[in-house]
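Review form for a predicted model. The reviewer records the input and the model, then writes brief findings.
Reviewer: anonymous (R2)
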Amino acid sequence: MTERELPIHHRASDPGGRVWSFGNVTWVHCPECDQAAKSTGASVSCAHCGYTTVPNLKPYSDKWAYPASSDPLCSHCRKPLDRRERPTARESDGKLFVRIRCEHCGETEDYPALPGSPPSGGRSYRLLHRYLETQVAGETLWVNNLVHLEALEDWLGAKVRERPADRGLTMMARLPRWMKASTNRPKVLRGLAQLRELAEKSGIDE
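Model under review:
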């Protein structure tokens, strides 16, 4: 398990800001391959399988495609594939392919495709689940990104936590009681260490 070593008698001051001010991205489960994908609020991209949603202001239709076969089958398990349009199109040697993750066996493969178009408004969002989550003391501990993670490690791992009177309802002030309880502090810090280890294994870099 990866843990940050904080100085002895470490003190922390509330940096201010709400949760969205810590980092510029949120890491989510990729809808295609289930690995870590980067969400910026305008688009989602996965470096593992190439899944990319199209930002609303620039709906590039040439990135969208659907399987050319009228009855596409997974090349691994031979089960039927969903023929819906996806923003995972790519060209190779002048031919168009679309990357699909089989819902039956979980394998990802490129299949011959035909050009498609983005749905109305240019968005293809499904419900995206946050990637960096774990269970602590019967509660869900989550972070959006590494900046968010480090801020919580610094604050919750401190021996002394200082909040100036004029900070207002910052992220630190709004943390749930179970996270701040002294009896849960070791568990929460272990949970944050688990999330840091997960981030490293998953290639999360911001």
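Findings: The chain has a mean pLDDT of 84.
Further findings: The first strand starts at residue 11 and ends at 13.
Recommendation: see findings above.
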